[in-house]
Design brief:
With 230 residues, this protein is α+β, with helices and mostly antiparallel strands. It is built from nine helices and seven strands, in the order H-H-H-E-E-H-H-H-H-H-E-E-E-E-E-H. Helices cover 42% and strands 23% of the residues. The chain is elongated, with a radius of gyration of 25 Å.
Length: 230
């Protein structure tokens, strides 16, 4: 492990603990000697990190001080980039833009050794976005309705082409790899139903709110699915 990576791991460990942590525990966590921990702590202190130490007790960061988690290895960056590309390729514009903004913030604080094309733009990580606008249509409005617990009225086209109008309680969005699906409580059927977003022909978020009901909730739906298939 390089010294720079070890120093960031030390800071991460210190941030995660409100109480002091001993040099022995730090050495065991990082698989180095206590002497190395002493040298690293001195280096961090000299660099301006507000580390408080007490002989025979341990170390801690001064209360109120925070350090952003800046250190990623290449596999972690690839995982983050893949997640960003999935959101950009499969979700709506609002989430896609937010994911891109988050990636730019990560890029801005990366160490120099990770600022190269193969890390930030690996050509082998592809997420095709064919027909994204149709698959993710209305998802931004649905997400807001879920947060507000707002009833939505939809015009829905079934697989056989028949159109119907429904008033539903939006509970959750699921992506199955080919299409986004809305899990909802249907007031007409008085039961859970699933609606593909690409088959919704029209959607209006009403000003009516549905109540919190444990028997008509996403958690309850998932519970039923688990026990029906087990």
């Amino acid at each position: 492990m390089r010294k720079a990576e070890r120093l960031f791991q030390l800071l991460t460990l210190l941030r995660s603990r409100r109480q002091v942590i001993t040099a022995q525990e730090l050495a065991e966590r990082l698989e180095v000697s206590e002497r190395t921990i002493y040298r690293d702590m001195q280096a961090l202190s000299l660099s301006g990190m507000p580390i408080e130490s007490e002989a025979g007790v341990g170390y801690r960061l001064r209360p109120g001080f925070s350090v952003p988690p800046l250190m990623f290895d290449e596999e972690e960056l690839e995982a983050l980039l893949l997640g960003v590309r999935m959101v950009q390729g499969w979700s709506d514009d609002a989430l896609g833009n937010a994911a891109g903004s988050a990636l730019e913030k990560i890029r801005a604080v990366l160490p120099d050794r990770l600022h190269h094309r193969h890390t930030l733009q690996p050509e082998w990580l592809l997420v095709p976005d064919f027909h994204r606008s149709k698959r993710a249509q209305y998802s931004d409005q649905i997400r807001e309705a879920i947060k507000l617990r707002a009833i939505i009225d939809i015009e829905y086209q079934r697989q056989d082409g028949e159109l119907s109008t429904r008033s539903i309680w939006p509970l959750g969005l699921v992506y199955w790899g080919q299409a986004w699906t809305l899990i909802a409580w249907c007031e007409i059927r008085n039961a859970y139903r699933m609606f593909r977003l690409d088959r919704i022909q029209g959607l209006v978020v009403s000003d009516k709110l549905y109540p919190e009901d444990p028997k008509r909730s996403l958690k309850h739906y998932l519970y039923l699915q688990q026990h029906c298939t087990s």
